[in-house]
Amino acid sequence: MQVKINNSILELVQGDITKQGTEAIVNAANSGLRGGGGVDGAIHRAGGPQIMEECWKIGGCPTGSAVITTGGRLQARYVIHTVGPVYHGGNRGEAELLAGAYRSSLKLASEKGIRTIAFPSLSTGAYGYPLDEAARIAIKTVVDYLKDHPEIGLVRFVLFNADAYGTFETTLRDTQSPLIPL
Ligand code: AR6
Question: Is the CB of 102 under 6 A from ligand 1?
Fold first, then answer.
């Protein structure tokens, strides 16, 4: 599914983040940038050791922030590493931290002149964020950013399975409807 936000494209696909040909892909990292499972493990496996070497030099990344490395052997030229919150029930600032992770990644892309970027669904694996709430925050944050930042031409959400794709699709359809406010 694709929608236009001013002159930019927001796209949903089902697939593997490591296979994307966007200029940057986003990693669902931890604050130590130490690697792990899920998206993080897949990106380091596919991209090779250079990405981890750069992560060691950077040292870390607070929750809600983002840092950038090259893409190593990946097709994407850059990896933007961001850290979503661990979900503890929703009353510990998780929503703002999750929005912050998307926003910081997009801001870094704008600063680096990156025009195409692919995101996984941050925090919805090991970090336990409920998918429907996370999808709503992800889509609202990206749509709001694209409205003000025409320099980003394409944002793609890469959803790993049909369930995640369906949830993002329903959420995006709802937010596109003038009858249902964000
Ligand atoms: N492409 C796209 N999406 C994927 C892929 C892939 N190759 N693999 C998994 N997903 P997670 P988090 C989906 O756990 O919740 C790591 O150990 C997955 O189905 O990767 O932010 C880090 O080091 C889920 O919906 O990220 C951190 O310690 C979503 O991506 C911690 O996990 C995110 O799942 C971060 O946890």
Answer: no
